[in-house]
Specification:
The protein has a single domain (about 15-265), classed as Rossmann fold (3-Layer(aba) Sandwich). The two termini are about 25 Å apart. The chain has about 270 residues and is of the alpha/beta class. The longest helix is centred in the first third of the chain and has 23 residues, at about 15-35. The chain has helices at about 15-35, 50-60, 70-80, 120-125, 140-145, 145-160, 160-170, 180-185, 205-210, 220-225, 230-245, and strands at about 40-45, 65-70, 85-90, 105-110, 130-140, 195-205, 255-265. It is globular and about 60 Å long. The chain has a seven-stranded mixed sheet. Helix 1 crosses helix 2 (about 50-60) and helix 6 runs antiparallel to helix 7 (about 160-170).
């Protein structure tokens, strides 16, 4: 999502892929399974970013539209997609440009928690999904299950009050805590709400691979890192390197991450 409609900085799609894309490509098939997607459905992917979930939905033989507020991300998604059943559009999740009941299922992965007025966006997702169709959302468990990011932010918070404020803002989002996303669904008028969790690893070849993923300036954590002057950035890098190494030689690391998944059917007559 773009900076005008999101708290997530989304200006460099090439930078997003090593930053979060390495995880979202693994999350997509697990999320699709939990969302109950079947072949030949008409689907919407809200906050599609660079299109990792959208392409996976297309591979499941669905007809898919991906929508995101970031024009650079949509351009990247179009360039990297050959499936004729997949289309991408620039648009605002809070005002989706589709008639009521257009889609059989509407999904959103790693996006709803960074969209301002998330309740409004969820209401739009419900509106454009047919009665009896499914709305499914995946967000990260930032406090306890987003290890490669919390490791950096927790370290930075000791060194810089700005990082402490960033940590508080990011981690206090109710959707990122148990039951928070499900509560938002109930507020939006969904009755039978199912909440679960899925886990995939973030894998890095080395500390340099890990650290460079934040130097693209994407997201709230990456944009914070690149905002630092050279000296404090080097100090942060030194401390985070120690956390990455944990007394072992440099090399590959895998950080387990957890995400909340909530799904519900659109009530009949909605």
């Amino acid at each position: 999502m773009s900076t005008s409609t999101s708290t997530f900085v989304a200006t460099d799609p090439e930078g997003y892929e090593p930053y979060v894309g390495r995880c979202s490509r693994r999350l997509a098939p697990l999320f699709i399974e939990l969302a109950g997607v079947t072949a030949h459905e008409r689907l919407l992917d809200v906050g599609c970013g660079t299109g990792n979930l959208t392409r996976a939905l297309g591979a499941a033989q669905a007809v898919v539209t991906g929508i995101d507020a970031s024009a650079p991300y949509i351009a990247y998604a179009r360039q990297h997609t050959q499936d004729p059943g997949v289309t991408f559009e620039v648009g605002d999740a809070r005002s989706l440009p589709y008639p009521d009941g257009t889609f059989d299922r509407t999904l959103s992965m790693l996006a709803l928690d960074v969209i301002p007025e998330a309740a409004r966006a969820l209401a739009e997702m419900r509106r454009v999904t047919r009665p009896g169709g499914t709305v499914a959302v995946l967000v990260n468990d930032f406090r306890c299950g987003w290890a490669p990011f919390s490791m950096l932010v927790d370290t930075a918070a000791v060194l810089d009050p700005r990082a402490s404020a960033l940590r508080d803002r990011v981690m206090s989002e109710p959707m990122r805590w148990p039951g928070g996303l499900a509560a938002l669904f109930r507020t939006a008028g969904f009755a039978e709400v199912t909440e679960g969790q899925i886990s995939v690893p973030f894998e890095y070849a080395s500390f340099a691979d890990y650290w460079s993923s934040f130097l693209t300036g994407q997201g709230s954590t990456g944009s914070y890192v690149v905002s630092l002057a050279e000296a404090p950035r080097q100090e942060l890098e030194r401390h985070v390197r120690l956390a990455y190494l944990c007394g072992m030689p440099d090399g590959p690391r895998g950080f387990t991450t957890w995400c909340y998944v909530v799904r519900s059917a659109v009530p009949a007559g909605a």
